[in-house]
Amino acid sequence: MTVFVILLPEVISRRFGQILYISSLKSLHMYYRFGKAFYYFSIVIFLFFLLYFYSALPEQVFFQLDAEDRWPKGTYFYGMISLFVIFNLISLLPPKLLETKSWKKLHRLFPIGDPFRDYLLTWFYSFGGVLNLSLGMMVFYTHSINNQQEITADQFSVFFYLIPALLLIWIIALFLLFVGKTKKLQNPSEY
C-alpha cells in the first residue's frame, strides 16, 4: 500500500504530462485544419467571383480605363483559370509532399509531431488561400474597370491594397518560421 501511495503521484504526473503533450499536438493540428478550411473557403470565393463577374463582363475585356488593347472574354476566363491552377499547384505541392512523406529530406527536417511541421503546413494552406483571394480581387478589379456605370474601382481601393499587404505578412511569417526552425535545430534542448 505504501509503494502504491508513493508511486501514484509519479504515475499521475507522467500521465498528465502525456495528456498535455497530446493536447498540445491536437491544438497544433487545429491550426493546420483552420489553414486548410481557409484554403478551401478561398477556392469557393474565387470561383464565385470568377463565374459571377464573368457573366457581367462585356465581350471585350480591358485592364485599364483608357486602354486600347482588349482581350476576348473567353481568353480572360481561361487565363484566370490557368493562373488559379498554377498558383494552387505551386502552393499545394510542398504540403502534399510533406503529408504523404514523398519528399524524404523534407520529412526528416519536419517529422510528425514537430510543431514547426504543423506551422509549415498551416502556412502553405493559408498562403494558398491568400493567393486565391488575390486572384478573386483581380477578377473583382477587372469587373470594376469594365463596368464603370455599376461600380467604380475607387470604392474598393482598400481591398486592392490589402492583398499585397497580406502577401508581405505571409512571406515575413515564413521567414520567421524558418528562423524558429533553425534555432530549434541549433539548440534542440531549448524546445
Number of domains: 1
- Pairing-aware structural class of the strands and helices? mainly alpha
- Percentage of residues assigned to helices: over 70%
Overall pLDDT, averaged? 79
Q: Please state the overall shape, judged from the principal axes of the Cα atoms.
A: elongated
Using only C-alpha atoms, the radius of gyration works out to 24 Å
Question: How far apart are the termini?
Answer: 38 Å
Biggest sheet descriptor = 2 strands, antiparallel
Tally of helical runs: 5
How many runs of DSSP E, i.e. beta strands?
A: 2
Strand content: under 5%
Tell me the series of helices and strands, N- to C-terminal. HEEHHHH
Spans of at least 5 consecutive residues whose pLDDT stays below 50 are: 1-26
Record keyword descriptors for this entry:
elongated; 2% strand; mainly alpha; disordered N terminus; single chain; two-stranded antiparallel ribbon; 79% helix; 191 residues
